[in-house]
Amino acid sequence: MHVRWSDPRLIFPLVAAALAFGLLKPQTLPIKPQKPVEAVYRFIELLPQGSGVLLALDFDPQSVAELRPITDALMRHCLRRELHVVGMTFNPYGAPLGQDIIQRVARDPEFRGKQDGVDYVYLGYKPGDMVQVITNMGENMQAAFPQDYGNRPTATMPIFRQLKSLKDFNYIVDLSASSTPETWIQFGSDKYHIPMAIGCTAIIGPDMYVRLNAGQINGLVAGLRGAADYETLLGKPGQAVKRMFPQSLIHLLIVAFVIAGNVVFLWMGRRGKEQKQSRG
Amino acid sequence: MIALVCAGVLAVVNAVLFALGVLPIRDAGIPNWTQTLVVLAGVVMTIAIFSFLYKDNPFFRAAEHLFVGLGLGISLVVLWYEFYKPDIYDALVVPAFTKGMTVGHDKLILLIPIGLGLMVLLRMSRSYAWVSRYPLAFLVGYGMGFGIQPVIHSNILKQMKPTLEATPMPWFGWAIVGMVAMLLLLTAYFASKGGRLATYLKIASGTVAVAYVIARATERFGQSPEAVEAFASMDKIIIILGVFSVLCYFVFSLEHKGAVGAVSRVGIIFLMLAFGASFGYAVMARESLLIGRFQFLLGDWLHLLR
């Protein structure tokens, strides 16, 4: 097959090479946390010990590359601050992922002594209409979720002695790659006056700034950059910080391609004009 | 051809990895064949999907079909275990057909949604398709009743408040804002007429925009409370200008000429900026996924990452 110099397929190996270089020769870049991310961190820092934090892990394997580091950092922060974390999801395909992330963080030697059902719990997926489920949670958590993800009855779990309904939670964080934050804001945060933050994929990040500007959420952790910011604030650089260098390399490459493309476009446009004039 | 090349390269690389002892994956020195197979399946699928970047090929299509099939299979399992089994089979069918068991009265209410669900299926019949409209009407009514108030409150009223909130700013701030707004409008107006003046105005508007972005990003300004307040006020004015001009662009009952045309062209600039920001974030999101896949290939498979 004939490949022209302007063939877009030439971009792919260059991106792959830049990415491989970035991963094989990692460099630490200075990371200055963004204000919306810092707001989430500060809010969790100021929550009193034993406060309830609801982590809605509404994502599936497609978004795990971005949302896993965010969830990991948030869960770590909450456990470090001795907060009670309840995890759940409205995405059936993401239910096992949520369990895996929460369990892995909780098993970290830093959190030795933290008990499932006492300090944290993962409730898994709840089928049905999201609005209806949130409303049920607002009435009674144990009625909405009679069992946790491991089929253990929630009625006997010490964590729910204090967190009887959604109203007893001090913070909601929706980690999402879809439109679930809107429903959480409308039927969870706004209705029960619970402060809320959003952790989301970069692709829906711009849509969430509207909510941030309106004060409907008090913080936003968007994409891998947001996760890297949070890891930096926690003082525990993880996957997201590691991925910042390769991502920056690709950014530079794309910017170079955009500039080159525009230069070629302008040059070809001028040449086309000149050819027309010479013909005329 | 490409499929054969991909398969050949994969086979050779895996053979080398086994020869070097990188594979199989070991847990405390003991080979973990399940984990090894999971990683190899992931590698084959990833490379099969990436092969589309060169061109469409059977290797890619096989992976694509497998993905669709798996997705459908998982959906069916989820549907069964999360909806049909607990709400129909275990709640109604098992007690009804098991000796010594009776269906609880509280469960009988489930017959109503089941009936409504079955009515939707009548859409497939030509003679009785009209029956399916009733459950749909029920759904629409329920959705509207539940949604109207919170949606208006959250998506309109709460958004209007920060947009229209009073912005404290000294008189010279308003003067600057007025001049910039005039500059933008004049640029938009003369841009449609062309000529040298339009070029100068475009350059002036672009310079003002770049200067504002630079000033906004400058660390020194970010630390001064007066500057922070002034920038916050300016941001709000930009938002108001954006909302007004974009709304103007979407008013189709007026011809976009003269003042309306100029304002709607400013609206186009705001729309383009929003699309650009969204596209930038979309690229970043895709990069993150790509980095995740490369980490998997270089780390979990080739063991090249520390």
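qc> The interface with chain A takes residues 53-55, 74, 78, 82-83, 146-147, 150-151, 153-155, 158-159, 161-162, 239, 274, 277-278, 281-285, 287-295, 298-299, 304-305 of chain B (CB under 8 Å).
qc> done
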